[in-house]
Design a protein that fits this description.
Largest sheet: none
Number of helices: 14
Helix content: over 70%
Shape: globular
CATH superfamily of the largest domain: MetI-like
CATH topology of the largest domain: MetI-like fold
Strand content: under 5%
Radius of gyration: 24 Å
Number of strands: 0
CATH class of the largest domain: Mainly Alpha
Structural class: mainly alpha
Order of helices and strands: HHHHHHHHHHHHHH
Number of domains: 2
Length: 315
């Protein structure tokens, strides 16, 4: 078991290094992506640009720039090219909004995804199944910026039920809730549609397994069979999927939702940095997302290996 955990941790470190290298090289290959020009501004002359390149190390080989940038990230001293602000401080300021968005939306999409998945599986082929299937496809096909714009206009502007945007601190719970209820629902719509379809397919497959037929033969009610045997086993891929999606949202994966509702979270900070071709913030946020995804993925592997020894042999 210890060797399995060590292999997974080493693989996670390798993935993070690979992602950081690829992200850094992508921004180096972008045309007109000279960071010295962005730092100096449009009015900077050749001498000033040369001085900036020397001070920041842009005149060094690409691998030296990468090592120097990663050293600043690990030491917490990395600053953005465009605003000369500490990147980690900016991310810490945006984390409360992003965590609030991720936690609330994660609970909603997991709960409703399971509810709709069970209903569509139990009512397979009937009106409820068809109606929820249509709604699921509509939700999956609707981009967050479109739903967010509709919510802001009709529910915020026309009906004046919710604020038009922004983030309120948790120290004011009611204001915090009103500012986040619309972003929660908008972000959840896509995941609810996906989760309900995945759970429906899994339930329909599992209900024909031998152990399910044995449970019915023992005289258990359909409710007991569903809860104790079918649903319990069907939730394993859903929980794994939820952990990875939740990690992605924390790492700035809700860029569109945060930007539409102006939440000033990590995702919105990432969007602004991409627009400015600002390498350090994008690199840090990408690594943050990868860290959470890889960490939760590794934890899931370890838990599965602990429960099922066959996974350790194949890992």
């Amino acid at each position: 078991m210890a060797r399995f955990v060590i292999r997974r941790l080493l693989a996670a470190v390798g993935v993070l290094i690979a992602i950081s290298v690829v992200t850094f090289l992508i921004f180096q290959a972008i045309p007109n992506g000279d960071p010295a020009q962005r730092i100096g501004g449009r009015t900077a002359n050749a001498a000033e640009l040369a001085l900036i390149r020397h001070e920041w190390g842009f005149d060094k080989p690409i691998y030296v720039q990468y090592i120097k940038t990663m050293g600043k990230i690990l030491s917490g001293t990395v600053v953005s090219y465009s605003q000369n602000l500490n990147v980690l401080d900016q991310i810490r300021q945006g984390l409360p909004a992003t965590l609030s968005l991720a936690i609330g939306a994660g609970i909603i999409w997991l709960g409703l995804g399971i509810l709709f998945g069970v209903i569509t599986a139990v009512r397979a082929g009937r009106f409820a199944d068809r109606a929820l299937t249509v709604l699921a496809f509509i939700g999956v096909s609707s981009p967050p910026f479109f739903l967010g714009a509709l919510a802001i206009y009709y529910v915020g502007y026309k009906a004046n039920i919710i604020p038009l945007g922004g983030y309120s601190s948790l120290s004011h719970p009611w204001s915090w809730f009103k500012h986040l209820i619309a972003p929660w629902l908008v972000l959840s719509v896509l995941f609810i549609g996906i989760y309900s379809r995945v759970l429906r397919s899994t339930i329909l497959d599992i209900q024909h397994e031998d152990y399910v037929r044995t449970a019915r033969a023992k005289g258990l009610s359909e409710r007991q069979v569903m809860v104790r045997h079918i649903l319990r086993n069907s939730l394993i891929p859903i929980i794994s999927l939820w952990g990875l999606d939740f990690a992605q949202v924390i790492g700035g994966g809700a860029i569109l939702t945060e930007s539409v509702f102006n939440l000033h979270g990590v995702g919105q900070f990432a969007a602004q940095s991409i627009q400015r071709l600002d390498v350090p913030p994008v690199l840090v946020i990408t690594m943050l997302t990868a860290f959470f995804v890889v960490l939760l993925g590794a934890l899931v592997d370890v838990i599965y290996a602990f429960l099922d020894p066959r996974i350790r042999l194949s890992g």
